[in-house]
Amino acid sequence: MDVYVAGRDCAKRYDETRLGGADAARLAKYPQLAQRDDWRVSRFLKQQQTDNGKPCSLSHSGGVALWVCGGEAVGADIEYLRPRDFSAWYGSGVIHAHEQAWLVQQKDVLTAHYAVWTLKEALIKALAWDFADLAAVGLRRVCGQWGLHGGGQAWQGGVWRLSADYVAACVWRGADNGMRWHGYGEWQGLTAQRLWYWDKV
Predict the structure, then answer these.
(1) The CATH number of the domain where 67 resides is what?
(2) pLDDT digit string (tens) for 54-95?
(3) Which one of 90, 120, 171, 186 is CB 3.0 to 4.6 Å from 7, fit for a cystine?
(4) Residue limits of the 4'-phosphopantetheinyl transferase domain (predicted)?
């Protein structure tokens, strides 16, 4: 699995003439996107490598972009860590009872909540589902073991700390050939720390 990361300093390397068909059409419809760092950085990142027909997933947050390719199906999400009140998650039904039980066991409350959120986002991307489907995917305890579930399937995946301020989740189906991290600009030399990992259960 190849994982590519680029930061805000790469926005100036964005090349509008190299946009793919779908991105070019989107920009034509919403030209203001070209002024946003998230757009410029994420599209720069997509232009640095070819996917060779592999499934890929794109995410961006706070000026940092993540692009993941590999597996039979793949989803990814990156989030900028900032203090927030998570209480609304519980009343909305987005957090499953199993996920609540898992969260209670974690010492780093902030990072653990972002882990659950990024996993859910990654799963709905991998399934090509909508944001409204977040409650139907995520961490589940099956036969005493924790695993990632969505769409009636078990998934492999994990959560990594990219820096003091960013975490990312990647989920996939298919062989686990390891994670190969590639950084651009200020993210060159990136060493990602794996925080949690789940095999298919």
Answers:
(1) 3.90.470.20
(2) 899 999 999 999 999 988 999 999 999 999 888 888 888 899
(3) 186
(4) 73-128
